[in-house]
């Protein structure tokens, strides 16, 4: 097995990342399109972390920081390469980014029906907070 590296995503690989998420991520979002991902990378070039092995994307996580809070999105690992520490390495890189930015707590968005994802987050030390609910209003 070749060595894995974690790096920042680039604008030119957005189509490949969208295809990767369609295969490896649970669910889709209204921001899962060329323009949405381009805005993310343009605004914060260090937010979208990519795990790469032998030139192929094997995992991603978005480590967003708004200047106050730290948010994690789109933790996805290639289905054929799960349980090899890729997700843990991505989360460690995201948490290091947050610490460098002065972050004090990270939160993650996890679908209620995504049991595999819930187990991964729990294994990484995250826990659901039942006193919170996510309130959403689409702007389009």
Describe the structure in brief.
32% of the residues lie in helices and 23% in strands. It is built from four helices and five strands. The N and C termini lie far apart (44 Å).
Tell me about this structure.
There is one protein chain. With 140 residues, this protein is an alpha+beta fold. The protein is built from 4 helices and 5 strands; from the N terminus they run βααβββαβα. It has helices at residues 14-24, 34-43, 86-100, 115-123, and strands at residues 4-8, 48-53, 56-65, 70-77, 106-108. A 5-stranded mixed beta sheet has the order 1-2-3-4-5. The longest helix is centred in the middle third of the chain and has 15 residues, at 86-100. The protein is globular and about 40 Å long. It starts with a strand and ends in a 17-residue tail after the last helix.
Features:
32% helix; 140 residues; single chain; globular; alpha+beta; 4 helices; 5-stranded mixed beta sheet
In this structure, how is the largest beta sheet organized?
A: 5 strands, mixed
From the helix content, strand content and strand pairing, which structural class follows?
alpha+beta
Number of discrete helical segments: 4
Indicate the percent of residues in helices.
25-40%
Enumerate the spans where pLDDT stays under 50 for 5 or more consecutive residues: none
Number of strands: 5
Strand order of the largest sheet: 1-2-3-4-5
* SSE succession: EHHEEEHEH
Per-chain topology:
Elements: E1 4-8, H1 14-24, H2 34-43, E2 48-53, E3 56-65, E4 70-77, H3 86-100, E5 106-108, H4 115-123
Parallel strand pairs: 4-5
Antiparallel strand pairs: 1-2, 2-3, 3-4
């Amino acid at each position: 097995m070749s060595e894995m590296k974690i790096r920042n995503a680039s604008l030119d690989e957005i189509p490949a990342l969208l295809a990767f998420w369609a295969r490896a991520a649970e669910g889709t979002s209204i921001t899962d399109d060329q323009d949405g991902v381009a805005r993310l990378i343009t605004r914060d070039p260090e937010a979208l972390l990519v795990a790469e092995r032998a030139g192929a994307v094997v995992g991603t996580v978005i480590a967003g920081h708004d200047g106050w809070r730290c948010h994690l999105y789109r933790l996805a690992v290639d289905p054929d390469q799960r349980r090899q520490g890729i997700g843990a390495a991505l989360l460690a890189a995201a948490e290091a980014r947050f610490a460098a930015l002065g972050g004090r707590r990270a939160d993650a968005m996890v679908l209620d029906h995504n049991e595999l994802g819930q187990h991964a987050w729990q294994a990484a030390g995250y826990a659901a907070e039942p006193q919170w609910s996510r309130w959403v209003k689409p702007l389009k």
